[in-house]
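Archive transcription. Copying these from loose printouts into the bound notebook so they stop getting lost. Printout 1 of 2:
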Amino acid sequence: MSKKKTATIIATGKRKTSIARATLKPGKGVIRINSMLLDVYQPEFAKMKIFEPLILSEGEYKNVDIKVNVRGGGFLSQAEATRVAISKALVEWKKELKQKFLDHDRTLLVSDIRRTEPQKPYRSAARGKRQKSKR
Protein backbone atom coordinates (compact mmCIF):
# COMPACT_ATOMS: atom_id res chain seq x y z
CA MET A 1 0.00 0.00 0.00
CA SER A 2 1.41 3.37 -0.96
CA LYS A 3 1.79 6.20 1.51
CA LYS A 4 -1.01 8.19 -0.14
CA LYS A 5 -3.55 5.42 0.57
CA THR A 6 -2.96 5.70 4.32
CA ALA A 7 -3.40 9.47 4.41
CA THR A 8 -6.60 11.29 5.39
CA ILE A 9 -8.43 13.04 2.56
CA ILE A 10 -10.65 16.06 3.22
CA ALA A 11 -13.09 17.32 0.57
CA THR A 12 -15.86 19.92 0.61
CA GLY A 13 -19.16 20.32 -1.18
CA LYS A 14 -21.61 23.22 -1.37
CA ARG A 15 -25.22 23.66 -2.38
CA LYS A 16 -27.22 26.83 -1.69
CA THR A 17 -26.36 27.65 1.95
CA SER A 18 -25.26 24.10 2.89
CA ILE A 19 -21.60 23.27 3.33
CA ALA A 20 -20.40 19.69 3.76
CA ARG A 21 -16.92 18.57 4.78
CA ALA A 22 -16.04 14.90 4.14
CA THR A 23 -13.11 13.14 5.81
CA LEU A 24 -12.03 9.89 4.15
CA LYS A 25 -9.69 7.35 5.82
CA PRO A 26 -8.84 3.72 5.13
CA GLY A 27 -11.36 1.54 6.94
CA LYS A 28 -14.25 -0.90 6.71
CA GLY A 29 -16.87 1.07 4.75
CA VAL A 30 -18.54 2.98 7.60
CA ILE A 31 -20.24 6.17 6.40
CA ARG A 32 -21.46 8.72 8.95
CA ILE A 33 -23.25 12.01 8.32
CA ASN A 34 -23.27 14.30 11.37
CA SER A 35 -22.38 11.24 13.53
CA MET A 36 -25.38 9.31 12.13
CA LEU A 37 -24.89 6.14 10.09
CA LEU A 38 -26.01 6.47 6.47
CA ASP A 39 -28.20 3.36 6.86
CA VAL A 40 -30.52 5.17 9.30
CA TYR A 41 -30.37 8.62 7.64
CA GLN A 42 -33.78 10.16 6.93
CA PRO A 43 -35.60 11.06 4.68
CA GLU A 44 -35.15 8.16 2.29
CA PHE A 45 -34.94 10.37 -0.82
CA ALA A 46 -32.00 12.31 0.65
CA LYS A 47 -30.30 9.04 1.61
CA MET A 48 -30.58 7.75 -1.97
CA LYS A 49 -29.08 11.00 -3.32
CA ILE A 50 -26.12 10.61 -0.97
CA PHE A 51 -25.74 6.92 -1.89
CA GLU A 52 -25.46 7.63 -5.65
CA PRO A 53 -21.66 8.22 -5.83
CA LEU A 54 -21.12 5.16 -3.59
CA ILE A 55 -23.04 2.95 -6.03
CA LEU A 56 -21.08 4.36 -8.98
CA SER A 57 -17.76 3.66 -7.22
CA GLU A 58 -18.52 -0.10 -7.54
CA GLY A 59 -17.65 -1.07 -3.98
CA GLU A 60 -14.56 1.13 -3.64
CA TYR A 61 -16.20 2.81 -0.63
CA LYS A 62 -16.06 -0.49 1.29
CA ASN A 63 -12.30 0.03 1.77
CA VAL A 64 -12.67 3.47 3.39
CA ASP A 65 -14.49 5.16 6.27
CA ILE A 66 -16.19 8.44 5.39
CA LYS A 67 -17.25 10.98 8.01
CA VAL A 68 -19.25 14.00 6.83
CA ASN A 69 -20.10 17.17 8.74
CA VAL A 70 -22.78 19.25 7.06
CA ARG A 71 -24.32 22.54 8.21
CA GLY A 72 -26.84 25.07 6.89
CA GLY A 73 -29.72 24.90 4.45
CA GLY A 74 -32.52 22.35 4.22
CA PHE A 75 -32.38 18.56 4.17
CA LEU A 76 -32.17 18.25 0.38
CA SER A 77 -29.55 20.99 0.08
CA GLN A 78 -27.51 19.21 2.77
CA ALA A 79 -27.88 15.90 0.92
CA GLU A 80 -26.61 17.41 -2.34
CA ALA A 81 -23.67 19.11 -0.59
CA THR A 82 -22.83 15.78 1.08
CA ARG A 83 -23.03 14.02 -2.27
CA VAL A 84 -20.50 16.44 -3.80
CA ALA A 85 -18.13 16.14 -0.82
CA ILE A 86 -18.19 12.32 -0.88
CA SER A 87 -17.67 12.26 -4.65
CA LYS A 88 -14.67 14.60 -4.46
CA ALA A 89 -13.11 12.54 -1.66
CA LEU A 90 -13.57 9.27 -3.57
CA VAL A 91 -12.03 10.79 -6.71
CA GLU A 92 -9.02 11.95 -4.73
CA TRP A 93 -8.76 8.43 -3.28
CA LYS A 94 -9.05 6.71 -6.68
CA LYS A 95 -8.45 8.90 -9.74
CA GLU A 96 -10.11 6.45 -12.19
CA LEU A 97 -13.54 7.35 -10.78
CA LYS A 98 -13.39 10.94 -12.03
CA GLN A 99 -14.38 10.23 -15.64
CA LYS A 100 -17.12 7.81 -14.53
CA PHE A 101 -18.64 10.45 -12.26
CA LEU A 102 -18.43 13.16 -14.93
CA ASP A 103 -20.05 10.90 -17.54
CA HIS A 104 -22.91 10.03 -15.17
CA ASP A 105 -23.66 13.49 -13.73
CA ARG A 106 -21.37 16.52 -13.70
CA THR A 107 -22.96 17.86 -10.51
CA LEU A 108 -21.34 14.98 -8.58
CA LEU A 109 -18.01 16.83 -8.77
CA VAL A 110 -18.97 20.43 -9.55
CA SER A 111 -20.91 22.40 -6.95
CA ASP A 112 -23.99 24.30 -8.12
CA ILE A 113 -23.16 28.03 -7.93
CA ARG A 114 -26.75 29.32 -7.95
CA ARG A 115 -27.70 31.39 -4.92
CA THR A 116 -30.86 33.25 -3.94
CA GLU A 117 -31.16 36.84 -5.09
CA PRO A 118 -31.04 39.37 -2.24
CA GLN A 119 -34.09 41.45 -1.37
CA LYS A 120 -34.20 45.03 -2.63
CA PRO A 121 -34.67 47.97 -0.27
CA TYR A 122 -38.28 48.74 0.72
CA ARG A 123 -39.61 45.55 -0.87
CA SER A 124 -40.84 42.28 0.60
CA ALA A 125 -39.10 40.12 -2.04
CA ALA A 126 -36.22 40.20 -4.49
CA ARG A 127 -38.44 40.79 -7.54
CA GLY A 128 -41.97 41.40 -6.30
CA LYS A 129 -43.27 44.97 -6.57
CA ARG A 130 -46.43 46.54 -5.21
CA GLN A 131 -49.31 46.19 -7.61
CA LYS A 132 -50.89 49.25 -9.19
CA SER A 133 -54.42 49.59 -10.42
CA LYS A 134 -55.25 51.79 -13.42
CA ARG A 135 -58.31 53.87 -12.53
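Printout 2 of 2:
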Amino acid sequence: MTLRPYTLAATTLVIALAAAATLSAHMAYSKSMPAKDATLSESPDHLQVWFTQDPEPAVSQLSLEGPGGDVALGATTVGDEKSLVAAVPAPLAPGSYTVKWRSAGDDGHALRGDFAFSVRTAE
Protein backbone atom coordinates (compact mmCIF):
# COMPACT_ATOMS: atom_id res chain seq x y z
CA MET A 1 0.00 0.00 0.00
CA THR A 2 1.40 3.41 -0.94
CA LEU A 3 0.36 6.66 0.64
CA ARG A 4 -0.73 9.47 -1.57
CA PRO A 5 1.34 12.65 -1.24
CA TYR A 6 -1.39 14.57 0.61
CA THR A 7 -1.92 11.66 3.03
CA LEU A 8 1.82 11.50 3.71
CA ALA A 9 1.95 15.27 4.24
CA ALA A 10 -1.02 15.18 6.62
CA THR A 11 0.53 12.30 8.59
CA THR A 12 3.84 14.17 8.83
CA LEU A 13 2.05 17.31 10.04
CA VAL A 14 0.20 15.39 12.78
CA ILE A 15 3.46 13.81 13.99
CA ALA A 16 5.24 17.20 13.98
CA LEU A 17 2.43 18.85 15.96
CA ALA A 18 2.43 16.04 18.52
CA ALA A 19 6.21 16.36 18.95
CA ALA A 20 5.94 20.15 19.37
CA ALA A 21 3.23 19.74 22.02
CA THR A 22 5.42 17.28 23.91
CA LEU A 23 8.44 19.59 23.78
CA SER A 24 6.46 22.63 24.88
CA ALA A 25 5.19 20.69 27.90
CA HIS A 26 8.64 21.03 29.50
CA MET A 27 9.56 24.04 31.57
CA ALA A 28 12.10 26.39 29.98
CA TYR A 29 14.14 29.46 30.97
CA SER A 30 12.36 32.62 29.83
CA LYS A 31 14.42 35.57 31.14
CA SER A 32 16.43 36.69 34.14
CA MET A 33 17.49 39.64 36.25
CA PRO A 34 20.35 40.33 35.73
CA ALA A 35 19.87 39.48 32.08
CA LYS A 36 22.02 36.82 30.46
CA ASP A 37 25.44 38.31 29.53
CA ALA A 38 24.58 41.70 31.11
CA THR A 39 27.27 44.06 32.35
CA LEU A 40 26.12 45.90 35.48
CA SER A 41 27.56 49.10 36.91
CA GLU A 42 26.41 48.14 40.41
CA SER A 43 25.74 44.96 42.33
CA PRO A 44 22.21 43.51 42.11
CA ASP A 45 20.33 43.12 45.39
CA HIS A 46 18.61 39.93 44.18
CA LEU A 47 18.61 37.35 41.41
CA GLN A 48 15.41 36.40 39.62
CA VAL A 49 14.84 33.80 36.90
CA TRP A 50 11.54 33.48 35.01
CA PHE A 51 10.31 30.28 33.39
CA THR A 52 7.56 29.17 31.02
CA GLN A 53 5.84 27.26 33.86
CA ASP A 54 5.51 27.65 37.61
CA PRO A 55 8.66 26.26 39.27
CA GLU A 56 8.31 23.42 41.77
CA PRO A 57 9.45 24.82 45.18
CA ALA A 58 10.68 21.48 46.54
CA VAL A 59 13.37 21.08 43.88
CA SER A 60 14.11 24.71 42.98
CA GLN A 61 17.45 26.32 43.72
CA LEU A 62 19.53 29.32 42.65
CA SER A 63 23.25 29.54 43.28
CA LEU A 64 25.91 32.08 42.37
CA GLU A 65 29.57 31.59 41.54
CA GLY A 66 31.95 34.52 41.32
CA PRO A 67 35.64 35.29 40.92
CA GLY A 68 36.29 34.09 44.48
CA GLY A 69 34.10 30.96 44.33
CA ASP A 70 30.59 30.39 45.68
CA VAL A 71 28.64 33.48 46.78
CA ALA A 72 26.19 33.17 49.69
CA LEU A 73 22.60 33.98 48.70
CA GLY A 74 19.38 34.25 50.64
CA ALA A 75 16.89 31.39 50.43
CA THR A 76 15.51 30.57 46.99
CA THR A 77 11.77 31.25 46.88
CA VAL A 78 9.11 31.03 44.20
CA GLY A 79 8.28 34.56 43.10
CA ASP A 80 5.51 36.09 41.05
CA GLU A 81 4.99 35.35 37.38
CA LYS A 82 6.60 31.87 37.24
CA SER A 83 9.94 32.86 38.75
CA LEU A 84 12.57 31.98 41.33
CA VAL A 85 14.11 34.69 43.51
CA ALA A 86 17.10 34.81 45.86
CA ALA A 87 18.47 37.83 47.70
CA VAL A 88 22.09 38.88 47.23
CA PRO A 89 22.78 39.97 50.84
CA ALA A 90 26.20 41.57 50.30
CA PRO A 91 27.42 43.75 47.42
CA LEU A 92 29.25 41.83 44.70
CA ALA A 93 32.80 42.83 43.83
CA PRO A 94 33.64 43.65 40.22
CA GLY A 95 34.07 40.52 38.11
CA SER A 96 32.25 37.79 36.21
CA TYR A 97 29.49 35.74 37.84
CA THR A 98 27.54 32.63 36.90
CA VAL A 99 24.00 31.99 38.12
CA LYS A 100 23.05 28.31 38.22
CA TRP A 101 19.40 27.32 38.48
CA ARG A 102 17.55 24.07 39.03
CA SER A 103 13.81 23.47 39.02
CA ALA A 104 10.97 21.37 37.63
CA GLY A 105 7.72 22.27 35.94
CA ASP A 106 4.28 20.77 35.59
CA ASP A 107 5.55 17.43 34.28
CA GLY A 108 8.01 16.99 37.16
CA HIS A 109 10.98 16.85 34.76
CA ALA A 110 13.98 18.42 36.54
CA LEU A 111 15.93 20.98 34.53
CA ARG A 112 19.19 22.80 35.13
CA GLY A 113 20.77 25.77 33.47
CA ASP A 114 23.06 28.70 33.96
CA PHE A 115 23.84 32.16 32.66
CA ALA A 116 26.57 34.70 33.22
CA PHE A 117 26.71 38.40 34.00
CA SER A 118 29.45 40.84 35.00
CA VAL A 119 29.74 43.62 37.55
CA ARG A 120 32.12 46.40 36.64
CA THR A 121 33.46 49.22 38.76
CA ALA A 122 31.13 52.23 38.73
CA GLU A 123 32.71 55.17 36.96
